[in-house]
Amino acid sequence: DSLSRLFARCGHVQSVDVCEKPEPGEKKEKLTSKFFNRKAVTGFQVAYVVFRKPAGVQAAKALSQEGPLLISTESHPVKTGVSKWIANYVASVVDQEELKAEVDAYMQDYDKKIAEEEAKAAREEGVPDEEGWVKVTRKGRKPGLPRTEAASLLGLEREKQKRARKELLNFYAWQHRETKREHIAQLRKKFEEDKQRIALMRAQRKFRPY
Question: For the chain, how many structural domains are there in total?
């Protein structure tokens, strides 16, 4: 927000991406999760300011002749010290309902993807491949007849691989759900511990954040 406001005088700022170090090429897809896979960038950082029009870049280059640009001003101060710590703590408190909604939405998308893959595999059963071989499975209502004994063995091997792949996907799905549940339980435990610690400090009249 501060960088967008700072460079707004040069033109309409389309986006500002902050990263740990300069990265060539196209920018990576931004993470959509608010709670998971988020890496905090500390220390010196690099910012890419993207303008809607090329003229904004030329105007930004001309700013170097005006001297240093101040992000924190009297009209738009940047939080530091205790105020920043309090803001960071408040931001770290997880909204359980929002977290639950994100986890449920993720699992619904994952289950939908798995169901589509299984439906696609079911449609391909009994359909000859490019060489004319037909996959032999126990599920098919009209199993194809292999041309030779080698084709029969190949069909059995493919069925074995498919069964092993499905078992592996089921295991990954179960493992992913367990990891999510454990993470949510830890967040809830930390939230309750923070509430108890703050209540105790208030009771002792030693908690003065402001």
Answer: 2
